[in-house]
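Morning. Coffee machine broken again, so started the prediction first thing and wrote up yesterday's gels while waiting. Chain of 196 residues, entered below exactly as on the submission form.
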Amino acid sequence: LLPYDEERVAATAVQYSPDGEHVCVGFENGDVWVLDASAIAAAAPMNWESDKFFVKNSDDDNVKLNTTKGKAISVLRYRPDGVLLVAAGLGGKVTIFLVQEPDASIAYAVIKSFRAHMCNIRSLDFSEDCKLMQSTGVDNQILYWQMEMQASEVNLAAVREVTDASGNVEHGVQDVVWATWTSALGWPVEGIYDVN
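Came back before lunch.
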């Protein structure tokens, strides 16, 4: 299905867009491919012309996202409103993509890339209001990131509590309503563990 010549590259993360139009697949080599979900659903079994499955930019190029430069993608997560896609990988790197530029000429433009953890990232989640993102490393450290969008840029700040625009504390992170919870750690899963 994917254009990797004869090379065998394992998929390590998959995520549907909130509107169900795209499927993103992350690979062990750090690549992320964006596929058109409706083209895949309409394809006859075993009669796939893979080029039809890719989301295209205005210059008719397949949307392939370069993220971790050879390090496996461990998590892909769309923000609940579908505006951003976040890819996290081995080595603690996070890359944030703007799903569609305002001028609609390019899909999935990188708007921020940073090292969030000193280890591999295990999970990513967004709050329902899209203002917070949490990341969990394999070292069991949970980091919270307050996000603010301005045009095609995102400002991030590591936080311990949620603040308003004036910097006043609104509430602690334990009171945040999360759109998803994929971390094995935190308040929603407190007390859930295997006794063996």
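The CA atoms of residues 51 and 62 lie 8 Å apart. Going to sketch it on the whiteboard this afternoon.
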